Fold this sequence. Notes:
The protein is an alpha+beta fold.
Amino acid sequence: MRVATLPRKIAVLVTAAAIALTGCQQTANKTSNAPLPNTDWVRADYDMVKNGGTLTYGELIDALQKQEMSPDEMDDMYQRFSDEGVEIQPMGYEAEIRAAADGTLSFNKDYIESATVKSQNPTVISVKYNPKAVWEDGTPITINDLKAQIAAQSGTNPAYQVASTKGSEDVKEVRQTTDQFTGEVEFKGQYADWQSLVFPSLPASISNSPEAFNKGYTTKSTPSYGPYRVKSIDTNGQVITLERNPKWWGRQGKLDTIIFKVVTQAQAPQAFANGELDARELENGNEYATAKKRADGSIQKTNGLSWTHITINTTRGALGDIKVRQAMGLAINRTLIGQAVVGPFEVPVSLVNNPVYVPGQKGYQDVYHGALDKQDPAKAEQMLKDAGYTKGSDGVYAKDGKSLSFSITVPAGTKSNIDRATQIQKDLNAIGFKIDLQTVPGDQYFKSYINVKNFDLATFTWKGTLYPLQSAANILSPIDSKQNHTGYANPKIAELNQKANSEFDPEKRIELGNQMAEAMLSDYTLIPFYATPVVFSVKKGLVNYGASQFENYDWTMVGWSAA
C-alpha cells in the first residue's frame, strides 16, 4: 500500500470519522516487464495550456490512518490529523526548489535568485531572494523569516512541536547581509545537503510564536506563497477550494480553480470512474481496475519512493545473532510479497536492495549484489545448522534450550501489512522458525510497540527523498535515533554518513552513500522488500500533472490542453 504524504500536494483535509479501512486485493493480473519511467504525465508548453478551467482532485485520507508510514511521517502527521482534524499546507510549499524527473535539483527563480557556496568548511551559503516574492498578505519574504523558522525547528526550544530537527539543528546562524532579501546561512560544520535549508515555508510571525507554530493553523491554511491560495474550506462537505493568488508575482497560473475533495478509499475509485474527479492517485488493485473503466481516463505509472521492509529487534534473544537474521533474509520470498501488492497494477516488482537510494534514483546500486533476489530455504536452513541450531521434534530450530520462536507485530485494519506479515510468517515457519502474528490497535502501533521496541519483528513503510543522505542513516544510526528500532547501530554508518554530508563532489557523495547503504544492510537488522509504484488515473486532456517519482509540479503550467 503506498502511503499518501504531503509533498507535491497543496492541501489535505482530514476528518477521522470519514475513515474506511480497506486493503490491497490479490488478483490475477497481466504484468508488463517494461521499466517504469520517473515521470509519466502528459507534458505541454505553457502556451499550449488553456486559460481557465478547474481541476478537481480526490485527496485520499485513509492511508494516513493506516499506520503503514514510517515513524518520522507518523510524528509529523498522524497526531495532527487524528487529534486536530485538519491541516492544510500552503500553496508554494517546497516550490522554491525544482526537482527534475531524475531528481536533479535547481532553484526556482520566482523565489531564489541565487544561492551559492561561500565556504565549505564550515559550510556558508550566500543566498539572495527574489525581492518580488511575498506572502499571501503582501508581506515580503525575507531572511528574517528563515532565521525564525530555523530557530523554531532546531530543537533548542522545547515549546515547539517539531517532527524532526534534522538540518535545522546543524545551522549555526542565519544572518542578513546587504538587505532583507540577502543573507548567509552558516552551518556548524560541513553540510553538503544545504539546498533545503535556505528558504522559509513560514513567515516569522508564525515561527516566532510556539502557539501559532503548533496549533494556530490547524483549521486554516498557513499563508500561501504560490500562484494559488485557499479560497474556502467546507468542513461539512470536506472540500477545499483554491483560487488564483492576487499577490502572486510570477507567471499567471492557467487554472481558475483547484478543488480538493476529501474522499475515502472506498469512495474514490467510483468517484473517478463517474467523472466526479479529474485525477486520483490509486492505492490498490481494486481501485486500478475501477479507474481503467473510465472512457475518457488514462493511467500513468512511475517508479515510487515508498518501500517496505522487515525490521528486526536485535535485543530479542536469538535475533541478536546475525546468522539467524541472514537466514531470515534468505527464507523470505521478497518477490512474492511484492507481487501481491504491485502485481494488480500490472507492473513488475521492483526489489529494493539499497536503503539510501530508491530504484530509479541517480546513485541507486544493488548493495546486496543479488544475494537476496531469490529465495533460498535450503541455504537458510544450512546457515542455522552451521550456527549451532538443531531442529526439534516440533520442527522448530533451537539452541541452548531456546527455540526460534518470535512474533510479527502488525496494526489491526491494515490489510497490506497483515498480508505481508502473513507471507513472512509462512516463509519463516517453513524452514524451522515459529512465527506468530501479534495484532495490535492501529493507533498504538508505533507509540506502544515500535517506538519503545516492544516487538520482535515489524514491517511498515519507509520513504525515499530528494535528500537521501540527510535522513537515511537515521533508520539504523545512532542507536538512540528515534527511527532506529533495531537495538543495534553499526558505527561505520555514522562515520560514512558524516563523510558523505561533508562531501561536495556529487559523484563522491554517491559513492559514499552506497558505502553507507552497504554498511546499513550488512548487519541484516533491516531487510528491504519492494518499492511501491506511483499510479495515477487522470482525465484525458489534463497536462503537466499526474504520476511522478521526483518531479514536482509547476502550478502555473497545470491545466487542460489547448491542442
